[in-house]
Design goal:
Number of strands of chain A: 12
Radius of gyration of chain B: 14 Å
Order of helices and strands of chain B: EEEEEEEEEEE
Helix content of chain B: under 10%
Largest interface: A-B, 31 and 32 residues
Structural class of chain B: mainly beta
Distance between the termini of chain A: 41 Å
Largest sheet of chain A: 6 strands, mixed
Number of helices of chain A: 0
Number of helices of chain B: 0
Structural class of chain A: mainly beta
Strand content of chain A: over 45%
Distance between the termini of chain B: 37 Å
Shape of chain A: globular
Oligomer: heterodimer
Strand content of chain B: over 45%
Largest sheet of chain B: 7 strands, mixed
Helix content of chain A: under 10%
């Protein structure tokens, strides 16, 4: 069965520090994609970063990077130099070749302290 | 390039009424997905559509819910005879490619959501 697990319901981080949000996944498919989305208090879902299962390099987008460890089935999101505007819910998600839908983890609420 | 558009942003209905939620995908995207989010939870897949076709409706409740994506116009998620348990945020997403797994064009871009409240 396909599954996404986020074990950190909430995190507090000091502004300007780096933060790592954990995500592990389970799938028997060889071809899959991993995503991170940000949901601020306003409610919209903002796409942050994508990693394909066959990508050899870790994905990076500005201050976001995805630490992809295929053997461990983990896809942690790293935010460098956190900002107050990073306070939000963060969802890890996965698409897999036997379906067209995305499955989501339960989310991590990140709060940045000034 | 406009993103995914959803309307209305907020919708209030009384029990037993009908709710219609609309979604216009990003320009050039022909794959549309609907998800539901209950408070403090992640999104749950409901249905995947291409123009005039339902591809996967494995997440749709068997009764009262329906979805369409006509040749012209937005995708519509319709909930008949709403109940309090239908209160949630409903998100629409669109993608360039519907092929899943390992392809960057799979990326689903989400609209702002419609928050349905059933009184």
């Amino acid at each position: 069965a396909q599954k996404i697990t986020q074990t950190q319901p909430g995190m507090f981080v000091q502004e300007k520090e780096a933060v790592t949000l954990d995500c592990t996944y389970d799938t028997s498919d060889q071809s899959y994609g991993l995503f991170w989305y940000k949901q601020p208090s306003s409610g919209e879902m903002i796409f942050l970063i994508y990693q394909g299962s066959y990508d050899e390099q870790n994905a990076t987008e500005g201050r976001y990077s995805l630490n992809f460890q295929k053997a461990r089935k983990s896809a942690n999101l790293v935010i460098s130099a956190s900002q107050l505007g990073d306070s939000a819910m963060y969802f890890c998600a996965m698409s897999y070749s036997s379906a067209s839908k995305i499955i989501f983890g339960s989310g991590t609420r990140l709060s940045i302290r000034p | 390039n406009a993103g995914v558009m959803q309307n209305p942003r907020h919708l209030v209905r009384r029990r037993g009424q009908e709710a219609r939620l609309r979604c216009s995908p990003m320009k050039g995207h022909s794959h549309v997905y609907w998800y539901r989010q209950l408070p403090e939870e992640g999104l749950k897949f409901m249905v995947y559509l291409q123009k005039e076709n339902i591809i996967d409706e494995s997440g749709m409740p068997k009764e009262r819910f329906s979805a369409e994506f006509p040749k012209e116009g937005p995708s519509i998620l319709r909930i008949q005879q709403v109940v309090r348990g239908d209160s949630a945020a409903y998100f629409c997403a669109s993608s360039l490619s519907g092929t899943s797994g390992g392809i960057s064009t799979d990326t689903q871009y989400f609209g702002p959501g419609t928050r349905l409240t059933v009184l």
